[in-house]
Design a protein that fits this description.
Layout (H helix, E strand, L loop, with lengths): L10 E3 H8 L3 H9 L5 E2 L8 E3 H11 L19 E4 L2 E4 L2 E2 H5 L4 H9 L23 H15 L8 H19 L12 H8 L7 H13 L7 H11 L4 H12 L7
Antiparallel strand pairs: 1-3, 2-3, 4-5, 5-6
Length: 259
Amino acid sequence: MTPTARPSGRWITTTEAAQRLGVKRATLYAYVSRGVLRSERRPGQQESLFDRAQIDALASSTRAAGGARPVLRFRSVASAVSSQVDGDLLYRSTPLADVVALGSFDEAAELVLGSLGAQPVPQVPASPAIDLGALPLERRMPVAVQLLAAADPFASDTDPDRVCRSARSTLRSAVALVAGRPTPPAASADVASLALEALGGSSTTAADVAVLRVLLVALLDHGLTASTVAARVAASTRAGLHDCLSAAYAAMAGPLHGA
């Protein structure tokens, strides 16, 4: 058996980092996904490694005055969308398994956003100066969203009902643009199929579409990932839907997103 390599003095293991912060390993990984901490994996090392100085700095800055347990100042947000009961994720009090069983991203989105009718989005005129297909994959959705914003006279409207009505249509149209489809797409167009085409796959493969649909539904609420927090911050300034999405995509562009 090959012995496990020991980290250098600067780096400590996941177990040591969790002990220093007084949290569980799962909580430590959550900090990494939110961009609070950075971790590394090295050949021969079974656990992720953390920068000792970063862990100690976090422990010092988040320790409650006079208390023994460190507490992050920003570790949760109030949400009417999702909740956890006995470890199970619920959307609007409906278990995730039941939401997935609906078999439709639109039905799941309607459950989350409410049963308001969809707001049509304006058609985006063809622009020979912008070829989404020539852009790197991660740049296509942000550009598509801004193209929709430029064509939408209500892009800055923050009325909750209008935002909820336009959210699904905006998403479908942005994905359709990236997939090279005309906009606005038909209301019956399946978002998962369009997304698979946008990623370079084939929407004729039913199994692939089904898997992607489950993933899209399961990730309807991203919790406190860096991109979701960025969108929440933008929304708190009363930015419009398109700009909130752009803020999220900007955060996703960072190399530490989801690290």
